[in-house]
């Protein structure tokens, strides 16, 4: 890998600070309450927690797709929506468009012609291991390949921050592991910031330098766990005693967060 190993602890400058952020939906459900969260430049930060703890709501607030009921999102430095990439739970590809044109879409919306976009699209398809599939349409692709297209589309504009909402949850374990590996490789090479929503303790520990565990009803930050393991991470790390110990620690925190959640159950995130 071209880059030197990345240290685990997030030491970059603050990119975004959520301060006392709350979100109450129109039906009266409190999705988030008094959330304080700092995201640093270059972080790979996972939001881990049960359904209903506000993980996806927090992601939508960061993306600007929703506004907080209370509190502030304090962005540091010049950043706007064009600096943010979003990968949803479903690939959300245009079914009639081929892989190349799906990845071209964000640049097309910025007024970049197909010809001028071609180098960036081709490079990003290579980065997600889809060279040769430029002319395939979504129905011809596996679930994992569709998600690779979705990641390439989000990354083709070279965003400073990539938001990912349980992107690999529907995939089989082998595909998920491979995509985890490839995502980390891309992150190390490009050095963008990731906020990654997941239900999986194992995924959060493998990917992240910081895991923020959330509790539900109301959605709030329960605890934060630093994953002090160097990058690059690979199968050696995934089968190591250190990884197992960190997963146990994260799992214990998650169980505690679930046990502290009280009140009637509300579906959703």
Provide the fold topology.
Elements: E1 14-24, E2 30-40, E3 44-48, H1 55-63, E4 70-75, E5 84-87, H2 99-109, H3 114-127, H4 143-155, E6 161-165, H5 173-190, E7 193-198, H6 201-207, E8 210-215, E9 220-226, H7 235-238, H8 241-260
Parallel strand pairs: 3-7, 3-8, 5-6, 6-7
Antiparallel strand pairs: 1-2, 1-4, 8-9
Helix pairs in contact: 2-3, 2-4, 3-4, 6-8
User: Which structural class is indicated by helix and strand composition?
Assistant: alpha/beta
Report the portion of residues in β strands: 15-25%
Looking at how many chains there are and whether they match, the oligomeric state comes to single chain
Largest sheet features: 6 strands, mixed
CATH H-tier superfamily of the largest domain: P-loop containing nucleotide triphosphate hydrolases
Secondary-structure arrangement, i.e. CATH architecture of the largest domain: 3-Layer(aba) Sandwich
Report the helical percentage.
Answer: 25-40%
User: Which strand order does the major sheet show?
Assistant: 5-6-7-3-8-9
Radius of gyration: 18 Å
């Amino acid at each position: 890998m071209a880059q030197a190993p990345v240290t685990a602890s997030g030491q970059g400058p603050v990119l975004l600070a959520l301060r006392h952020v709350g979100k109450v939906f129109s039906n009266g459900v409190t999705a988030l309450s008094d959330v304080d969260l700092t995201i640093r430049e270059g972080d790979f930060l996972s939001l881990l927690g049960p359904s209903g703890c506000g993980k996806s709501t927090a992601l939508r607030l960061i993306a600007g797709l929703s506004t907080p009921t209370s509190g502030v999102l304090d962005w540091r430095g010049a950043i706007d929506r064009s600096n943010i990439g979003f990968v949803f739970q479903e690939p959300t590809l245009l079914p009639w468009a081929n892989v190349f044109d799906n990845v071209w879409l964000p640049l097309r919306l910025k007024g970049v012609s197909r010809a001028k976009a071609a180098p960036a699209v081709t490079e990003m398809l290579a980065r997600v291991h889809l060279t040769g599939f430029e002319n395939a349409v979504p129905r011809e692709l596996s679930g994992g390949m569709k998600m690779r297209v979705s990641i390439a589309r989000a990354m083709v504009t070279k965003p400073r921050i990539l938001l990912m909402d349980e992107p690999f949850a529907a995939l089989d374990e082998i595909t998920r592991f491979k995509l985890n590996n490839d995502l980390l490789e891309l992150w190390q090479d490009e050095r963008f910031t990731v906020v990654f929503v997941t239900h999986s303790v194992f995924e959060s520990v493998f990917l992240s330098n910081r895991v923020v565990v959330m509790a539900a009803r109301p959605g709030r930050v329960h605890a934060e766990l630093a994953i002090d393991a160097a990058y690059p991470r690979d199968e050696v790390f995934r089968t190591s005693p250190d990884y197992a110990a960190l997963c146990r620690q994260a799992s214990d925190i998650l169980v505690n967060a679930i046990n502290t959640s009280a009140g009637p159950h509300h579906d959703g995130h």
